[in-house]
Amino acid sequence: MSPTDPILARLLDLHPKKIDLALDRMHRLLAALGDPQRRLPAVIHVAGTNGKGSTVAFMRATLEAAGLGVHVYTSPHLVRFNERIRLADRAGGRLVSDAVLSAAFDAVETANAGAPITFFEATTAAAFKLFSEHPADVLLLEVGLGGRLDATNVIDAPACAVITPISRDHVEFLGDSLEAIAREKAGILKRGAPAVFSAQDAAAQAALEQEAARLGVRPRIFGQDYLSRREGGRLIYEDASGLLDLPLPRLPGAHQTVNAGAALAAVRAVFPDLAPQAFEQGMTRAEWPARLQNLGGGRLAGLLPRGAEIWLDGGHNEAGAKALAQAMAERAAVLPLPLVLIYGALKTKSPEAFLRQFAGLAAQVLVVPLHGDQASWPPEEIVAVAGRIGLAARTEPDAVGALRSLARDERAPPLRVLIAGSLYLSGDVLAANATPPV
């Protein structure tokens, strides 16, 4: 048990809803804390449906390679809450310590005085307090949900706003069309601040451009103002400032070419004079747990026969599943192995939309429940969905049990295992593997 767990439990009880998108409570609490959001370093604000964390990871690696101090705020965490807050230091950044985090939470509790506040609002206020108290050159600030009414959207003049690929997700809060969701994401755009739009569906792109025009924002748009592509085993990036010929991103998957491009566009918008070596190192040093993470080390790899692969990804929506399926197909072209998908999902997600991407690709699906207080799909219902799609599926008690079940058949060939469907599932797997994010 972490020393911060009792405080986090109290913060969870301060609002009857887990998610209640609004900004009035946030402004009240920040004012009581002395408005720390007005004393932050340059802020690069990142919204979108998919790729936010990876884009932040590429920016962080690039900026730290350039010798800059970088604060980072992301969510959710996988194993420990501390993962959400990374503070700049001379060693390139560190996760906030329990002692420092506890003191910030104490200050937030005192300032809030028991008033209604959501968990994300309270913890974001604590993060802003910490970021304002520790020197840095830049803060990479990831939106929690949406953009317009997200608790992070209290920054009046960001150095840059980045919007990563948008797809249908969280429709109960953001709207049931790409246009509506895009307008919510575009809420982080600010008049006079640079913006970067990653590759988008046409409907989302049109909505983003309309919102930008309304605010007088001239965004850097993928395919128009900048471009990133794989060519000859390299990443080629181009914009008005010139061409960068870089190593392929360390994070695997073709979709990371798009995320890396958005990161490069944002960095060049805010820091136009970085040395080329910083961009090269940014591609090769970027780390982002549970995003096509190869679990070749740790405890779980020993559960399967030699030659097997275990990949972990927190992808949970249709767009994420498409990217994962493409990555697995590309991997199979290099080294053919039967693919087994270990899958669990929240009730707010569509198992059918996710699993359809693996029809004809996965040899079988092992369905596991999500543990904790999250409302998840009963595994039996997901098995039924998989059957209708034509996927062989069965239930297992958890991911570790699923891996052990695969090891029982000594005659089976080496397998490629992908564990996906939920960041909560990813967190459980990393904890079981004894490889939490650091």
TrEMBL record:
Pfam families: Mur_ligase_M. The keyword Ribonucleoprotein does not apply. Its cofactor is Mg(2+). Keywords: ATP-binding, Ligase, Magnesium, Metal-binding, Nucleotide-binding. GO terms for cellular component: cytoplasm. Its EC number is 6.3.2.17. GO terms for molecular function: ATP binding; dihydrofolate synthase activity; metal ion binding; tetrahydrofolylpolyglutamate synthase activity. It is an enzyme of class 6 (ligase). Signal peptide: none annotated. It catalyses: (6S)-5,6,7,8-tetrahydrofolyl-(gamma-L-Glu)(n) + L-glutamate + ATP = (6S)-5,6,7,8-tetrahydrofolyl-(gamma-L-Glu)(n+1) + ADP + phosphate + H(+). Transmembrane segments: none annotated. The keyword Chloroplast does not apply. GO terms for biological process: tetrahydrofolate biosynthetic process. Residues 46-267 form the Mur ligase central domain. InterPro entries: Folylpolyglutamate_synth, Folylpolyglutamate_synth_CS, Mur-like_cat_sf, Mur_ligase_C_dom_sf, Mur_ligase_cen. It comes from the Bacteria. Belongs to the folylpolyglutamate synthase family. NCBIfam families: folC. This is tetrahydrofolate synthase. The lineage of its organism: Bacteria, Pseudomonadati, Pseudomonadota, Alphaproteobacteria, Hyphomicrobiales.
